[in-house]
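Quick note —
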Amino acid sequence: MLDKNLKEKSNKKEQTNITLSNEEMLQCQRDIQDLNDAATAFFRIPVFFSHQNLFSLGDPNPPFTNQQEFIIRMFKEIKKVLLFPRTLPNTEQYPDTTLENIRTMVNSSYGLAAALLVPTGPTNKGEPYSPFLQIEPSMAYQRGLPILLVIESTMQDRAGGIWTGQLAPFTPVVWFSATTSVDQFFNSVQWKEALQNWAAQVRSGYFAQTAPEFEYKFNSHD
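Predicted structure written out below.
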């Protein structure tokens, strides 16, 4: 009986060692992935991603609404083109007032992408959507940043200002959510073309602002 208990303890110890070994392997893989992500991050130009709070678009617990999935997918799409989408307060946090935080974000970004979707209800002040979705793109425009706007079709009649589509260069890409799924929208030529054009403008502005003032060339013909 004693031998049996010792054998069971030995088996449990071996299983624990195997589990720890697997965990160590997973940790090593995560560490390598972190290194790869860090290397890739050098090519991620910071951009401002303006959108409604996810909790205003649906329940905080899964399953998520189409609108919540849309925001998450758009975040990933921006990262795919090696731009880094920054949001308040998800990725950035400052000790100043909200407007000052927005100005800081705009001044330290090289482009702005914004999405206006149907919320679950009006804001605290009874407005159909957050006024910051007017303020943030407008501040980015004043700064001269490239702008990418996406609006849900059912919000077109409820949104004004820059979201009307009548003020160049504010020409929102429209998501017809009633007939087009999230995957279909982000796989569409319309979205891919808009994203690539905007990303190219962001990169051009980034290199124009970060290039050295003087370029030293040793060329006998100059």
